[in-house]
TrEMBL record:
SMART domains from the UniProt entry: GGDEF (SM00267), PAS (SM00091)
N-terminal signal peptide: none
UniProt cross-references to PANTHER family, sorted A to Z: DIGUANYLATE CYCLASE DGCT-RELATED (PTHR46663:SF4)
A molecular-function term among this protein's GO annotations: diguanylate cyclase activity
Residue stretches making up the PAC domain: 216-276
Protein name: Sensor domain-containing diguanylate cyclase
Pfam family, one: GGDEF
InterPro entries listed in its UniProt record: DGC-Regulatory_Protein, GGDEF_dom, Nucleotide_cyclase, PAS, PAS-assoc_C, PAS-like_dom_sf, PAS_4, Rev_trsase/Diguanyl_cyclase
Keyword terms of this UniProt record: Nucleotidyltransferase, Transferase
Domain called GGDEF: residue spans: 309-440
EC number: 2.7.7.65
Classification lineage: Bacteria, Pseudomonadati, Pseudomonadota, Betaproteobacteria, Burkholderiales
Length: 440
């Protein structure tokens, strides 16, 4: 075949009269983006087809010119189809009168094509139309999309974070396998279409639903929110959550949410432990002096806002505690401090604060309590301690406490003056014989 590029038009004498009338149609085919062949059987019994017309695009796609008046079988080496030979397909289409489509790639793999064969009947004549389209760009886009999708799936199935995409109804579209694991699902695909109410306990789901309202309504992202979650075994963990709105093409309408939650359970546990160490007395488990004073300062501020509130503070000290350490040793002394702490914790109300202020000094803050009620409570706990000795192996070790009480007033500006008054009352109790209660 001649490889020179030129328009290929079949002389009108070689076309049927009906086709000659449609010469303009063939001229239009020259400008199509896909290649077109018009083929006829020279005789009814012929197995091969004669190419009557080929447009410029077909020549450009195949690199072959001067196709007119050549046989279809001559294209066989240029169009290497996957399923059948080109001539076999052509005969199959002509006989079945059903079109056939196939996608294939060039031998060097650089180009991909879509070929379509169909029968065309014009009055008493039949012809074969072959359309050839270069689909290389589409195939490359499909490949890139598949690779991107595979990368996305790899992220979902490999990440240790909880990743999720929700639709406008807040139902899962995609999520990471880690989220499936902690909620008792075998695969993240089992979670697709589910709402938080179907995945988490209702109380937890409501937390997530509430925080998503501004995202859906106003398109406001949620950043660094600490949220609880429950594992499939019922244990609770903590996550740091970020959620961003996903917008429609208009850039305004929120059509979904993209979220990433990172498990911070271990770091939060360490943080809680450090906070506990900073606010709790290690030996007794009571509030530390610093944490107790913070409670006192909060009560002072409360009383300044509402002067009618009555709040009392009790300061307590173990009588002759040094003797316990000297006679029985410091281990028994520590056990005594724990014993007294346990007795006091069992007597106070939930609204009360109790702390270890010093070595053997304790204090109790009693909100909404009159001085008379505080004195009655102090006498009760003093009697409790007096009649509940420490049992150390086969030894019974008694102890008593002295208590000083003061009432917080709106004239108090700091905890120092309050503690000083309570301490004065305490030492008055000690000077008057110990194991007693005195008022400041």
């Amino acid at each position: 075949m001649d490889t020179k590029s030129r328009a290929i038009l079949v002389p009108a004498a070689q076309l049927d009269d009906e086709l000659s009338k449609c010469a303009n149609c063939f001229n239009l085919l020259e400008y199509l983006r896909y290649g077109v062949l018009y083929c006829i059987r020279p005789t009814e019994s012929a197995n091969d087809f004669l190419i009557s017309y080929a447009n410029r695009t077909f020549s450009k796609l195949t690199g072959i010119t001067d196709l007119a008046e050549h046989w279809l079988s001559e294209l066989q080496s240029h169009l290497q189809l996957l399923q059948h030979t080109l001539v076999d397909l052509a005969n199959q289409v002509m006989e079945s009168q059903r079109p056939y489509s196939e996608e294939f790639c060039s031998a060097d793999g650089k180009h991909c094509f879509s070929i379509n064969l169909s029968r065309l009947d014009i009055q008493a004549h039949s012809a074969l139309i072959i359309a050839l389209e270069d689909i290389s760009e589409r195939k490359q886009a499909e490949l890139a999309l598949r690779q991107m999708n595979q990368d996305f799936i790899t992220v979902l199935e490999s990440t240790s974070d909880f990743i999720y995409i929700k639709d406008q109804a807040s139902r899962i579209r995609y999520c990471s396998q880690t989220l499936a694991d902690i909620t008792g699902h075998k695969s993240w695909r089992d979670m697709v279409g589910k709402h938080d109410k179907e995945i988490f306990p209702l109380e937890t789901a409501q937390v997530y639903m509430q925080e998503e309202i501004p995202i859906f309504q106003k398109g406001i992202a949620l950043l660094n929110k600490i949220d609880p979650y429950f594992r499939s075994d019922g244990s609770m963990g903590w996550v740091s959550t970020n959620k961003w709105p996903m917008f429609d093409e208009d850039g305004k309408t929120v059509i979904g949410i993209f979220g990433i939650s990172r498990d911070i359970s271990e770091s939060k546990q360490r943080e809680d432990e450090l906070r506990t160490m900073a606010t709790t007395d290690f030996l007794t488990g009571l509030a530390s002096r610093r944490d107790f004073i913070d409670d006192v300062n909060r009560q002072i501020a409360r009383i300044h806002r509402a002067p009618q509130i009555q709040t009392c503070l009790l300061m307590m000290d173990l009588d002759f505690f040094k003797r316990i350490n000297d006679v029985y040793g410091h281990a028994v002394g520590d056990a005594m401090l724990q014993h007294i702490s346990h007795l006091m914790k069992n007597e106070v109300r939930r609204v009360d604060s109790i702390g270890r202020i010093g070595g053997e000094e304790f204090a109790i803050l009693m909100p909404d309590t009159t001085i008379a009620a505080a004195q009655a409570f102090a006498d009760r706990i003093r009697n409790k301690v007096m009649h509940t000795p420490l049992l150390d192996k086969d030894r019974v070790i008694p102890i008593t406490i002295s208590i000083g009480i003061t009432q917080i007033s709106c004239n108090d500006r700091s905890s120092d003056s309050i503690l000083e008054r309570a301490d004065t009352a305490l030492y008055q109790a000690k000077n008057l014989g110990r194991n007693r209660v005195e008022l400041a």
